[in-house]
Amino acid sequence: MRLTCWLFLCLVQVSCSSESAPSAERRAPPPAPAGSAATATACTRQEISDPLTKTFFPSKIGSFCLDEDGGRAVGEGTKERLENLSDFFDGEAEVYHRHQVRRVTQFRYVSTTSAATIDFLVSKFASKEFAFAMFTKRVTGDGDPADEATAQPLAVAGAAAIGVGNANLWKGEWLFEIVYNDDKAAPEALAKAAAGIIPELTKSVAERVTGDAEWPDDVKLLPAQDQVPSGFRLVTEDAFPFAKGPGRFGMRYYAERGRRFRFARLNDTAEAAERWMKKLSGASKPSEGATVPGADQVVAGVYKDGEVEVEALAARKGAMLIVVQDEPRVLRAGATADERAKVSLTLAEKAEKAAGLLR
Question: pTM score, two decimals?
């Protein structure tokens, strides 16, 4: 089944409302099963076919009940190979493989009163860290979390975000991607209908899922104060456009008195931190005079991020590496020093914040 055209247009219309359109990563995930459109039906199925996940989902919610086909599962503990993942993620299976996905379940709810469906993709990963990383890639990706099109947080055990007609939920090793579809409804009616049931359903699933709801330390140990809503990521490689390679960084995005910036945190080994410091020492314009009390090593400079220049400061203490950088989304190419000062931290302020995070 493909996401219907009207829903795609609705999402594009919202996304294009800001100067910086969200990346393709933040679109609604591919909806589940291919086949004919849903029709009104009576609820008879009590659980999906997959024995590992069947307890996660209510048999009925509102006017929706489980589809009679019972769903499909691929990968670990199923009858189908993980290579069939490409049937679910059009052109994106490799992204899931890089995040160490182990199995995926696909199913849907159908409405008893309309043509609407609620489609689920349920992925299990090798660890909660990989699952959380994929969750943040889906919600924020390479976009600006301050963009009004970004999915907004929903309070659950774990983490969840609600978009226009869709939701993403993380808990433990699990990622749930949920899409509301109705090809007979106008965009405004669809958005209203989805808002009336998707949050409730997401909360219900979060309560039923067994799994560690504590965020990975990579992100959890960064301060939450002044964080932009949905402004966090866990990345497993290529953490910065100006410094690439394998390495698990937690990130948060902030807005403080009109100024935007990011924190990134790596806590691996001293050798890994030193390798990243070497990568980060290649600034196009090194910044002189940066000192961070208590740090074993400090590098700072101006780096190219697309068409703009961002200043970043990296401080290492043993195996801990902290990076404080400008937010490129609020900078423009050729910005003057005065323009930058209005939306970014000074180098001294970056050093002060890095020192606080290294304590």
Answer: 0.88
